[in-house]
Design goal:
two-stranded antiparallel ribbon, alpha+beta, 40% helix, 235 residues, 20% strand, OB fold (Dihydrolipoamide Acetyltransferase, E2P), de novo design (two linked rop proteins), 7 helices
Amino acid sequence: MIVHSPAVVLRRFSYSDTSIIARCFTQEMGKISFMVRGAKRKKSPQTAFYEPMSHLDLVFYYNERRDMQTVSKANFATTYKNIHGDLKRIAYGMAVIELTEKTITDYDPHSELFIELLNILNTIDRRADHLNLVYWYYQIKLLTLLGFKPDLDKREFAGLVLPDLTKGPNSAQILSFLISGNLSDTGFQSKLNELSVSSKDRKVISQYINTCLYYHFDGLKELKSLRVLKALVTA
């Protein structure tokens, strides 16, 4: 079966002297691993496509009996102008990508989450300020769309007590705003600039969201990008 779908590259691995495996989040079919033969050859035009964060337009052959699928055609759907030239943007972008890769499962489509991921990458590319708020927004949307929407009135779970949001002067209000917001709304993005976020709020909100993620998804504490981002948003 031939499938045509937008995709975001999550990871790439060397497979042989000339080939790679690219793990992509496709809008049509969820997370898929692709064998890309010849991608490591110096003159191969495919090399640039399969870097993490790349937004592609893919045509591929799907065979349900195979663990890896084969790409027929790839093109850039979006070319980001600023992410790759700024270390802070790279850190946030890679954290978003790594978080997504570790929390979704193979062949399980999440079209809404895919759209949110594109919105986040476009936002990180466009703006250099308040990226901690943008990142928190994506973490919350990911939790929500995967069935674990945070309930600010509930702090206790089996074997877990969530951080107390009252310890930050505006933590509860900021989280409530992010939970109910939509990044596609220009009014919401404008209000992000008006939020008052203290250093205590940064610490409390980061701890709260990360605790929710660690509770619902195994292995996230080992993610390098999340450790980097935790330092950034609590600094």
